[in-house]
């Protein structure tokens, strides 16, 4: 589901072909006021994340590069090490 938030959309709300995982405006908002992120960054290639930080992100509840929890709507993943490694390998394969 990463593609849903981490990709730009056209005026009709469709994902822009060829630009998946390049970052984009979050396509929905919360029903209450909070510290909700308005944009999702590029995650194609996991630029700026070494393997250790990427693994922590996906196994320890959305812990970012600086060791702080990422803002909603980023899901709090607690993947297995193998599942996280597979997602990391996939995202790194996208150039």
Give a structural overview.
The protein is mostly helical. It has one domain. Helices cover 27% and strands 4% of the residues. It has helices at residues 2-5, 51-59, 81-93, and strands at 24-25, 39-40. Strands 1-2 form a two-stranded antiparallel sheet. Helix 2 packs across helix 3 (81-93). The two termini are 18 Å apart.
How are the SSEs placed, and which strands pair?
Blueprint: H1 2-5, E1 24-25, E2 39-40, H2 51-59, H3 81-93
Antiparallel strand pairs: 1-2
Which tags fit this structure?
95 residues; 2 strands; mainly alpha; two-stranded antiparallel sheet
Question: Outline of this structure?
Answer:
The protein is mainly alpha-helical and 95 residues long. It has helices spanning 2-5, 51-59, 81-93; strands spanning 24-25, 39-40. Helix 2 packs across helix 3.
Task: Note poorly predicted spans.
Answer: none
Strand tally is 2
Shape: globular
Largest sheet: 2 strands, antiparallel
Instruction: Report strand %.
Output: under 5%
Name the structural class. Answer: mainly alpha
How many structurally independent domains? 1
């Amino acid at each position: 589901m990463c593609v849903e938030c981490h990709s730009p959309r056209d005026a009709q709300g469709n994902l822009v072909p060829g630009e998946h995982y390049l970052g984009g405006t979050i396509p929905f908002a919360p029903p209450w006021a909070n510290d909700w992120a308005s944009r999702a960054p590029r995650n194609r290639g996991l630029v700026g994340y070494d393997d250790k930080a990427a693994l922590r992100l996906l196994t320890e509840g959305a812990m970012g590069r600086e060791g702080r929890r990422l803002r909603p709507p980023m899901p709090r993943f607690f993947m297995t090490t193998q599942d996280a490694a597979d997602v990391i390998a996939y995202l790194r394969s996208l150039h």
